[in-house]
Amino acid sequence: MAVRTIEVRERVMARNDELAAQVRARLARHGVTAINLVSSPGAGKTTLLERTLGALGEELDIAVITGDVQTQNDADRLAVHTPRLVSAVVTGGACHLDALQVMTAINAIELERTRLLFIENVGNLVCPANWDLGEKEMIVLFAVTEGEDKPLKYPKMFENARRVVMTKTDLLPHVPFDMDRAVANALSVNPALDVLRVSALTGEGLGGWFDFLRDSARPVSTSG
Amino acid sequence: MSLAMEIGRIAEEKLGDAAPQLVTVAVDVGDSAGVEPSSLEFCLEAVFATPPFAGAKPHIVRCSGDVLRVAYLEIDDGRPDD
């Protein structure tokens, strides 16, 4: 047989990164701050968003894109807490959202009436780390029901994030979780990480989370 | 797996109707790319065993830095050897 070689030399993420840049530019034009929430399955992304929408949904004009492998259960849960659009992306088996899905989803969102956009990624600490969605910031949720060594096992996710939110802190008296060790592990991977501690159930620490979000959301433009 | 699927998309885009003739897909994986080469190889084998491909073999080329790119594709174009 005759084997022919075709030179490619194309970055695997090139197409997604180009689309992510377009998403980022479009959001910037509308003054929308996008936050990509990532975590293991069950770390509390949806519950934290429920509390956030309840407290700040109107104040910060929050919109949400949710990504789920199957079902739109998360979007249905969140829609109860806001009259604003919650856009559900069912990935159909894929373990992460990509920039094309986000670009498609924001077409259904009134960006001119949005200041803060949450992108609730698929629960997975591996694949979402590679996919830029056009967000301003990636935030990792890290539940106290997980192992303290998660940042060491999944370093890329913690390297790419700027903030880690320790969730379910109300369970600390009941689980053998060493918070100091977990935080030290996260900081060993990424010394620049900011760490928040919250319980969406009791409300502990949510004030700091809300203050961060208020700082992140740009003021609504009054021009024109 | 998502990276392997993206590599499959790139190969299909480059080859079009010639995708079934692909025999080797070479991928450069940097030591700081955040990718475990053996895991990627396993996933690539699964992707390239599925139509429109017909069992192409991955060839992982380890290199320095954070590079992750499709280096080259080899196809059997059916013509006899020169």
Mean pLDDT across all residues of chain A, rounded? 91
Structural class by SSE content of chain A: alpha/beta
**What share of residues of chain B is helical?**
25-40%
**Residue runs with pLDDT of under 50 for 5 or more positions of chain A:** none
Identify low-pLDDT runs of chain B: none
Radius of gyration of chain A: 18 Å
| Approximate shape of chain A | globular
**SS-derived structural category of chain B:** alpha+beta
How are the strands ordered across the major sheet of chain A?
Answer: 4-3-5-2-6-7-8
Taking the sheet with the most strands of chain B, its summary is: 3 strands, mixed
Brief overview, please?
With 224 residues, chain A is α/β, with parallel strands linked by helices.
Key structural traits:
heterodimer, A: 224 residues, alpha/beta, seven-stranded parallel β-sheet, 8 helices, 22% strand, globular, B: 82 residues, alpha+beta, three-stranded mixed β-sheet, 2 helices
Helices and strands, with pairings:
The complex is a heterodimer of chains A (224) and B (82).
Chain A: E1 3-11, H1 14-29, E2 33-39, H2 45-56, E3 62-68, H3 73-79, E4 86-90, H4 99-106, E5 116-120, E6 137-143, H5 150-153, H6 155-160, E7 163-167, H7 179-189, E8 194-197, H8 206-216
Parallel strand pairs in A: 2-5, 2-6, 3-4, 3-5, 6-7, 7-8
Chain B: H1 2-15, E1 22-30, H2 37-47, E2 57-63, E3 68-76
Parallel strand pairs in B: 1-2
Antiparallel strand pairs in B: 1-3
Helix pairs in contact in B: 1-2
Description of the structure:
The complex is a heterodimer of chains A (224) and B (82). Chain A is an alpha/beta fold. Chain A contains 8 helices and 8 strands. A 7-stranded parallel sheet of chain A has the order 4-3-5-2-6-7-8, with helices on both faces. In chain A, strand 3, helix 3 (73-79) and strand 4 (86-90) form a beta-alpha-beta unit. In chain A, helix 1 (14-29) packs parallel to helix 4 (99-106). The N and C termini of chain A lie far apart (68 Å). In chain B, 30% of the residues lie in helices and 30% in strands. Chain B has helices at 2-15, 37-47, and strands spanning 22-30, 57-63, 68-76. In chain B, helix 2 (37-47) links the parallel strand 1 (22-30) and strand 2. The A-B interface holds A 1-13, 15-16, 94-96, 127, 129-131, 155-156, 159 and B 1-3, 5-7, 9-10, 14-15, 23-24, 27, 34, 67-82. Strand 1 of chain A pairs antiparallel with strand 3 (68-76) of chain B, so a sheet runs across the interface.
